[in-house]
Amino acid sequence: MLKTNERPARDKKLSQLKLDNGSKIAVIGGGPAGSFFSYSALDLAERLGIDIEIDVYERKDFSRCGPAGCNHCGGIISESLVQILSTEGINIPSHVVQRGIDSYVLHMDTGRAGIDTPLQEKRIASMYRGGGPLGAKGITRGGFDAYLEKLIQDKGANLIKERVVQISLDDGYPIVKTKSGLKKKYELIAGAIGINAPSLQFFDGLVPEFRPPDVTRTFICEFSLGRDLVKKHFGGSMHVFLLNLPRLEFAALIPKDEYVSLVLLGEGIDKELVRSFLNTPEVKGCFPPGWIESNTPACKCFPKINTNAAIQPFSDRIVLIGDCSVTKLYKNGIGSAFSVAKAAATTALLHGISADDFEKHFMPVLKGINFDNNIGKILFAFTRQIQKRDFLKQGILRMVSKEQHKPGKRRYMSMILWDTFTGSAPYKEIVMRTLNPIFIFNLIRGIVAAVLFKKGGNGSKSDLKNATESLGRIYMDGEVIVRQGEFGDCFYVIQEGKVEVLHDENGKDVRLAVLSEGDFFGEMALFEREVRSCTVSALGGGSRVLTIDKKTLLRRIQEDPSLAFRLLEKMSSRIRTMNEQLKL
Ligand SMILES: Cc1cc2nc3c(=O)[nH]c(=O)nc-3n(C[C@H](O)[C@H](O)[C@H](O)COP(=O)(O)OP(=O)(O)OC[C@H]3O[C@@H](n4cnc5c(N)ncnc54)[C@H](O)[C@@H]3O)c2cc1C
User: Fold this and answer.
1) Whose CA is nearest to atom 41 of ligand 1?
2) Among 18, 42, 174, 361, which is most buried by a count of CB atoms within 10 Å?
């Protein structure tokens, strides 16, 4: 308890722990967490009419190939994050997307099965974080982190390409010192340094009760197959493996433009485990015959990954975000960096920058991710048991194959596996779906059939048919995207090209509007259970459009209500335009 004469001093201190016009913020680390924090803080400050200054310190040059420019990652942007960024006005450009992913091939040692998206649309992006693998030549596409750096600079952030070597406090205000000797005082520091840099030690003592997350070793390498072989053998499909190898939780082969990335996640991945994995027939079968035996990876590393959350990653004027605070277990790290960074930016701008503010408004987001990770741990333990039992694996493959070959049928198992591999849904939601009686009945039926007929699925390569780099779906001139009078439960964001909005008046189509890149349509379906009020069709030579699911969006709006703001802004501007048209 504070004594009464201490209270005015504390109240004065608390009133200083707010951001205001001219406040200076340092962001250490220009990876996803640092960039999303900067973007969200500058966006919110603009809306609130506050003039803040953000310096982002980043030691790496993301245009460089190999470890010098890379942030050690599989480079998959999850389906849910692609959609969420679109609604935030961030459409990942085609030159950053190495390949749009629209299907998975699940490999088990009892067989394999292809899993397509129900929409037949590319909503998962594979990209490089830096300039590509070591020695890469001819990679003309940019990396994701370089794209984010440009995005935040355009938003008004100041990018300082230097290594931070020290953080100290002066009368409670943090001071950042760089390798070249630059020294600057700030109102707030957002530490976004990940868990693969030694810089976490800066915060020992500065953030009194902070304890960094526990980590384990993973493995990533890049195989240089060349564009044609990647297209022929992988197309737009990611290959995931659930094999009975000790300590291996998850493995994936991710096609990019000229390379295929291999990611192994589990407990303390080492060279021996990598060798055993590459020697399995399931892995060799994904490559041209004899290729894996006679080629070595162009680039490889054993980066660390979080296995739990940091303790107390904040104090007055300091907040830690991204991997150095908490991340989703094994999946969608970039997506959770977005959620955590946005929660920190919103807390700082709307509430304040004291430890109490972060405890009240930022910590619940961290706790939510941590709670879900604990459910994820149970899910992975259960998956390990499945990996050891052939009859279960055969039952799962059989169920997936059946679902994939019956269009229009509800895909219980396919969607559970899809969301587990893509990291698009919380682990809790996935576990809840496994308790559905129809799912349990179908699984038992699949297992019994697999035991009786000794057959699982045999998969298909249908998913290789549509290998393009960009996200979304391309509609040709005049092709209808939504039709007036039909029911719909999603809306659309235009990635490229134009669409026209038509209204049927007495059998005649009247053009109401032409929309272009960055615009969205069909959003009324999110709010009302009504039929579409207009027809929207592609205009000109091919419009690329991304579908946004009602469920994904509503889930995110519940976590972060500010997401609804952009939608309301757009709808309000449409009403204004309509009013102006009516006046004419
Ligand atoms: C094997 C593996 C595969 C993964 N695959 C995926 C995937 O496919 N999809 C996905 O969503 N997530 C994936 N992740 C997780 C994802 O990489 C992380 O969650 C994400 O990068 C976290 O972002 P961040 O900004 O917190 O940290 P980082 O990306 O690590 O960025 C930290 C930045 O801080 C900079 N920095 C550090 N110290 C200093 C300093 N002193 N001065 C200046 N700058 C500094 C670094 O240079 C770096 O750019 C994977 C992780 C691993 C290990």
Assistant:
1) 164
2) 174
3-state SS, 519-576, equals: CEECCHHHHCCCECCCEEEEEEEEEEEEEEEHHHHHHHHHHCCCHHHHHHHHHHHHHH
What is the dihedral sign for C-alpha 318, 32, 251, 116? positive
Distance from Cα 184 to the centre of ligand 1, integer Å? 25
| Whether the Cβ atoms of residue 445 and residue 353 lie closer than 8 Å to each other | no
Which domains does the chain possess?
19-92+129-211+310-372 (3.50.50.60), 376-462 (no CATH), 473-583 (2.60.120.10)
pTM of the full predicted structure? 0.90
Separation of CA 204 and ligand 1 centre (Å): 20
**Cβ atoms within 10 Å, residue 337:** 27
Count the helices and strands in the chain (H runs, E runs): 18, 27
Contact status, residue 428 vs residue 80, Cβ threshold 8 Å: no
One-letter identity of residue 546: L
Per-residue pLDDT at 230: 93
Side-chain half-sphere exposure of 201, counting CA atoms within 13 A: 4
Closest to 158 in 3D by CA, of 63, 26, 263: 26
pLDDT tens per residue across span 185-224: 999 999 999 999 888 888 988 999 999 999 999 999 999 9
Contact in structure between 472 and 546 (CB atoms under 8 Å): yes
Given pLDDT bands bounded at 50, 70 and 90, which one contains residue 491?
Answer: confident
203: phi then psi, degrees, rounded to nearest 5: -90, -10
Burial (0-12, 13-18, 19+ Cβ within 10 Å), 150: middle
Ligand 1 atom with least separation from CA of 78: 11
Q: Determine which helix (DSSP H) or strand (DSSP E) holds 100, and give its type and residue range.
A: strand 99-101
Ligand 1: list residues with CB < 6 Å. 28-34, 57-60, 71-76, 163-164, 192-194, 196-197, 199, 218, 220, 263, 303, 305, 322-323, 327, 332-335, 337
The secondary structure of residue 472, as a DSSP letter, is B
Does the pLDDT of residue 502 top 50, yes or no?
yes
Kind and range of the H or E run holding 261: strand 259-266
95 pLDDT above the threshold of 50:
yes
Query: What DSSP assignment string belongs to 101-137?
Result: E-EEEEEETTEEEEEE-TT--B-EEE--SSS-STT--
